[in-house]
Every structure is written in structure tokens, then in C-alpha cells.
Amino acid sequence: MVLGGDEPTGSLVRPYAVTRGRTRPQLEIALEALVETTARGRSGQFLGGREQKVIVDLCGGRLQSLAEIAARMEVPLGVARVLVADMAADGLLAVHAPTGFDADGADESVGTELLERVLSGLRRL
Questions:
Q1: Cα–Cα distance measured from residue 8 to residue 54, given in angstroms and rounded to the nearest whole number
Q2: Order of strands across the sheet that contains 64-65
Q3: Which one Pfam family would you cite for this protein (predicted)?
């Protein structure tokens, strides 16, 4: 996990320590959900760890997907999901759920659009 400097620390900090032993998020967040920092998060007037500061900085300039946050922080997706959910519950982040589509394929164009967005995001990485 790259926190604050150029030195990666992912192997030094155990995921359960970052989430205080929790494995389930307060709210369910989709992998492709877009996250942005709120005005409260930008104010810096919150008690949080280094991980929260990194997430606030990542999502301050542009929308980031949950998957992008996990990748850029070099943490497992479950850890990022717990951290983002906690911060959203505290009003530090806004989470924009992806648009859904019918499971029976009634709205296939939305599913195709979602896959194209994911592919485009992967290419940008």
C-alpha cells in the first residue's frame, strides 16, 4: 500500500489491522461503483488513519471506482470495500452505485455499456 511516500507498505500492514478485524462492510458497494470525496472529506476535519487520507486524496480530483481504489492502494478489494463503506457512512465519501440491468437480459445495452466502461478503465491503468 502506498501511503504518503514512495515506499510501499502493503506487506507490512496486515489487512485485518487496517479494518480493525472486520471483513464485512457497513454497506454493500459494487466493484464498479464510483467514489468521490465530499466537502466534509476535503475539509480534513476528521479523525482517521493514513488509509483514509489516501482514499480522500485519490477520490478528491476525480471519480474512482472501488476497484481502482483497491489497486492504487495495493490492498485486497475486501479491505478497500470496508474502508470506503466506513468513510461513506461518516459522510467523507459519496458512493455512486452503477446503473443496473435486468438479470434476464431485457436491457442488454446497459450490460454491454458497463462492460465497455470496465474495459476502458482497465486500459487506462
A1: 13
A2: 64-65, 34-37, 93-96
A3: DUF742
Widest CA span of the chain, in angstroms?
48
Instruction: Report the residue count for the chain.
Output: 125
Helix (H) or strand (E) segment spanning residue 74: none
| Amino acid found at 92 | L
- Local confidence pLDDT in tens for the 125 residues of the chain: 444 444 444 454 566 666 665 666 677 888 889 999 999 888 877 667 888 889 999 998 889 999 999 999 888 888 899 899 988 988 999 999 877 554 455 555 556 777 787 887 778 77
CA distances from 29 to 24, 78, 97, 110 (A): 11, 10, 7, 19
Which sequence spans correspond to the domains of the chain? Answer: 17-99
β strands within the chain, DSSP E? 34-37, 64-65, 93-96
DSSP string, 21-40: T--S-SS---TT-EEEE-HH
